């Protein structure tokens, strides 16, 4: 286990000194007055805009809500919409829940819903869930009609994405900015955000559903995993997300929950430029990487070796996956110089990079490693400035369906295509999967597209992570969500 850097130690000390955490575990419940103290992994990257990945923070805090929710199996359920029906090949009508108030006191109306959806559709860049999707929303009496440019069998699932949360009209400014402060509909009202350091939420007593049991949520953003785990041990936090594997064994087993999740640790290889334009060298990487070693040495067995892009959180993937045939034969690296990059926000990834670097050098590559915080490396990764990039990637995060992930990461026009992959066969199979109705046929189409991606060796899946969450023994009923959409709910409280 590496010691925290001086910067991280200074940041943690500042958080503690500023009172973001209470320091006396014995007096904890009384001092917090029923408020949940939450230590989160990543600070906001886009000012908590719901049109970005920050939307998942808003969802985990139960402050911003969507028309549709998903159950554990990925089935679409009512949210701010009480029901829906498909009224044509391209149009769906959603009945809007009556009696709902936004946190600013205005009423949820079909016009407000249509406004939020139109703002997301017209945003630049678009939310990832709308990548390649043409969508319009029209308000009617008591409902909203959502129309897509092409038939889309997963519109209800798509509208469950936190990136399509419905906010009050006051959230949107003429210059395109979106503020979730005091503009959601959830059981907790976002009161304030202190940059990338803290956020404060209070219980919203005008909530349309069950009243939250906790008085509020006090959020601290603590990128250092050791500091998050230490906060659970000392009582300085009630809940800590993404506890590093190296810290899990140091915690009381009663405070640790471990759940297989749809998150894959993948090595993306740059097919646009550099040595990995050569399929043979990509195959050499595939042969060199030892996933079992990474699971054993870095994750201490708290992960699952990857057989594909989709892991055990989707049991149907393992059951339906066929052995791959016709793979490219490895070429000799002959000292090919490559840059291998990853980010430090997830504590295990720099260690994974070191193990991968050693195996690639053993295979004959010359490797330079780059590690930064995610906020400082994402842009370069998307611009193709690295030959290889290790990413911990959720595979069904947006819609509860992996097609959105396959499209964004592996198609020619994908918005998160780190490999720069542009393969007509992959594009065609992803399009076919996207057009298939939900059920066994869609799952088979997804696996066909996955196989096509794997044959390119543009992405080398190494392992599937597990959710390791820390909960103080004083906490009851926090959510343990493999999709990382929910965390503090109306039921979460202090004993």
Number of E strands:
19
N/C terminus separation = 33 Å
Strand content: 15-25%
In the CATH hierarchy, the architecture of the largest domain is Roll
Sketch the major β-sheet: 11 strands, mixed
Q: Average pLDDT value?
A: 91
Class computed from helices, strands and strand pairing: alpha+beta
What is the overall shape?
A: globular
CATH homologous superfamily grouping of the largest domain: Dipeptide-binding Protein, Domain 3
The helix count comes to: 15
Rg (CA only):
23 Å
CATH fold category name of the largest domain = Dipeptide-binding Protein, domain 3
* Highest CATH level, the class of the largest domain: Alpha Beta
User: Helicity, in percent?
Assistant: 25-40%
User: How many separate domains?
Assistant: 3
Summarize this entry quickly:
The chain has helices at 6-17, 28-32, 55-60, 110-121, 155-158, 225-234, 245-248, 279-288, 291-297, 315-320, 348-363, 378-382, 403-410, 424-435, 440-456; strands spanning 35-40, 68-70, 76-78, 81-86, 91-96, 135-140, 143-148, 188-194, 198-203, 216-221, 239-240, 256-269, 304-305, 337-343, 366-372, 388-394, 459-471, 475-476, 493-494. It is an alpha+beta fold and 495 residues long.
Structure notes:
InterPro entries: Peptide/Ni-bd, SBP_5, SBP_5_dom. One of its GO terms (biological process) is peptide transport. Residues 473-495 are annotated as: Disordered. With 495 residues, the protein is an alpha+beta fold. The protein folds into 3 domains: 6-63 and 186-238 and 472-494, D-Maltodextrin-Binding Protein, domain 2; 68-171, Dipeptide-binding Protein, domain 1; 261-466, Roll (Dipeptide-binding Protein, domain 3). The protein is built from 15 helices and 19 strands. It has helices spanning 6-17, 28-32, 55-60, 110-121, 155-158, 225-234, 245-248, 279-288, 291-297, 315-320, 348-363, 378-382, 403-410, 424-435, 440-456; strands at 35-40, 68-70, 76-78, 81-86, 91-96, 135-140, 143-148, 188-194, 198-203, 216-221, 239-240, 256-269, 304-305, 337-343, 366-372, 388-394, 459-471, 475-476, 493-494. The strands form 4 sheets. Strands 1, 8, 9, 10, 11, 12, 13, 14, 15, 16 and 17 form an 11-stranded mixed β-sheet that branches. The protein has a 4-stranded antiparallel β-sheet with strand order 4-5-7-6, with helices on one face. Helix 13 packs antiparallel against helix 14 and helix 14 (424-435) runs antiparallel to helix 15 (440-456). Residues 1-32 have low confidence and may be disordered.
């Amino acid at each position: 286990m590496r010691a925290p850097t001086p910067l991280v130690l200074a940041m943690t000390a500042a958080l503690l000194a500023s009172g973001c955490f209470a320091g006396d575990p014995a007096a904890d419940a009384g001092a917090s007055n029923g408020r949940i103290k939450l230590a989160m992994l990543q600070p906001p990257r886009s000012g908590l805009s719901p049109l970005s990945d920050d939307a998942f923070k808003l969802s985990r805090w139960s402050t911003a809500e969507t028309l549709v929710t998903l159950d554990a199996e990925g089935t679409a359920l009512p949210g701010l919409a009480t029901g829906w029906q498909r009224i044509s090949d391209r149009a769906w009508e959603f009945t809007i829940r009556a009696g709902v108030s936004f946190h600013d006191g205005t009423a949820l109306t079909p016009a407000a819903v249509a406004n939020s959806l139109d703002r997301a559709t017209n945003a630049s860049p678009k939310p990832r869930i709308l990548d390649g999707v043409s969508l319009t929303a029209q308000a009617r009496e008591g409902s909203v009609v959502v129309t897509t440019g092409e038939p889309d069998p997963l519109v209800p699932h798509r509208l469950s994405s936190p990136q399509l949360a419905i906010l009050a009209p006051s959230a949107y400014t003429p210059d395109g900015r979106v503020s979730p402060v005091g503009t959601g509909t959830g059981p907790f009202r976002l009161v304030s955000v202190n940059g990338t350091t803290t956020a404060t939420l209070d219980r919203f007593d005008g909530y349309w559903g069950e009243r939250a049991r906790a008085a509020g949520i006090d959020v601290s953003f603590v990128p250092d995993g050791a500091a998050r785990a230490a906060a659970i041990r000392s009582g300085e936090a009630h809940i800590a997300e993404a506890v590093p594997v190296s810290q899990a064994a140091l915690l009381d087993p009663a405070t640790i929950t471990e759940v297989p999740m749809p998150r894959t640790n993948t090595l993306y290889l740059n097919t646009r430029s550099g040595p990995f334009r050569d399929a043979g060298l990509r195959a050499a990487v595939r042969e060199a990487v030892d996933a079992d070693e990474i699971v054993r040495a870095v994750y201490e067995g708290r992960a699952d070796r990857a057989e594909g892009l989709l892991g055990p959180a989707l049991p149907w993937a393992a059951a339906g996956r066929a052995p791959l045939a016709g793979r490219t034969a490895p070429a000799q690296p002959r000292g090919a110089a490559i840059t291998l990059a990853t980010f430090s926000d997830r504590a295990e990834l720099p260690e994974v990079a070191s193990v991968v670097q050693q195996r690639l050098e053993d295979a004959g590559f010359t490797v330079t490693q780059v590690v930064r915080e995610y906020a400082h490396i994402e842009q370069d990764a998307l611009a193709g400035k690295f030959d290889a990039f290790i990413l911990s990637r959720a595979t069904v995060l947006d819609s509860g369906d992996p097609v959105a992930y396959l499209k964004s990461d592996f198609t020619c026009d994908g918005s998160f295509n780190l490999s720069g992959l542009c393969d007509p066969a992959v594009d065609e199979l992803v399009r076919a999967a996207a057009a298939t109705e939900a059920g066994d046929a869609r799952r088979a189409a997804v696996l066909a597209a996955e196989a096509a991606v794997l044959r390119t060796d543009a992405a080398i899946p190494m392992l599937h992570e597990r959710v390791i969450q820390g909960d103080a023994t004083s906490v009851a009923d926090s959510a343990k969500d493999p999709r990382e959409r929910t965390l503090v709910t109306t039921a979460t409280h202090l004993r």
